[in-house]
Write a structure and sequence with these properties.
This protein has 195 residues and is of the alpha+beta class. The protein has helices at residues 103-120, 129-142, 144-148, 160-169, 185-194; strands at residues 15-18, 23-26, 31-35, 40-44, 57-59, 72-73, 79-80, 85-86, 93-94.
Length: 195
């Protein structure tokens, strides 16, 4: 009579062990995996935003990439699968080429137009109406599933235009595009600081 018992740390999380195929059935938005270096079970109750699949997933602790969504992999689904690049706009991974680097010309031109517009009309995000709009756009963006019921899987719905508008207020793209082959989160973070 063999029984599989999940670690006590899984109590309260919706996970079930299966001894016959040595797998775990995970339900909900959390990540779990085994770290061979420390010989520890890693449990992250809230997987990073849009990194993990929220569907029911059955997997082996040595094959944790099954939990990841949008072609992500690794610890906490924190990187792209081999041969894929992180996209601008949303944290999705896909095949990219270096021809997208021509978008930098467009971004620089639009950035200059935005600066000129702000200087001519003496606008600032530090106070006034623009501050309020940017603040509320940030709140809606970070809680879009709660407020709008729209996740990445529903991007083609008619309400998509609202997400693009909100993204633009956050100086984000609002649509998915590549920049260059091999882009990762480290580079994307620095690009967001620059722009």
């Amino acid at each position: 009579n063999k029984a599989c018992e999940c670690a006590e740390r899984l109590n309260g999380l919706d996970a079930k062990c299966n001894i016959s195929n040595q797998s775990v059935l995970r339900k909900g938005n959390f990540w779990l995996g085994f770290d061979n270096a420390t010989d520890e079970l890693i449990i992250q109750p809230l997987c990073p935003f849009y990194y993990c699949s929220e569907e029911n997933v059955s997997f082996s602790l040595s094959e944790t990439d099954v939990q990841c969504s949008y072609n992500r992999s690794g610890l906490l689904c924190g990187k792209c699968r081999d041969g894929l690049s992180l996209t601008l706009g949303l944290h999705m991974c896909r095949e990219c080429s270096n021809t997208y680097l021509l978008l930098l010309v467009v971004f620089v031109a639009l950035g200059l137009v935005l600066l000129i517009f702000l200087m001519i009309f003496q606008l600032t995000v530090a106070h006034g109406t623009i501050n309020g709009l940017v603040f509320y756009a940030n709140i809606i963006e970070m809680n879009r599933i709660t407020f709008l019921g729209l996740g990445l899987g529903q991007l083609e719905q008619p309400g998509r235009f609202l997400l693009v508008f909100i993204a633009w207020f956050n100086l984000n793209f609002g649509f998915v595009t590549c920049l260059y082959d091999g882009m990762n989160m480290y580079v994307l973070t620095w690009l967001q600081y620059l722009f």
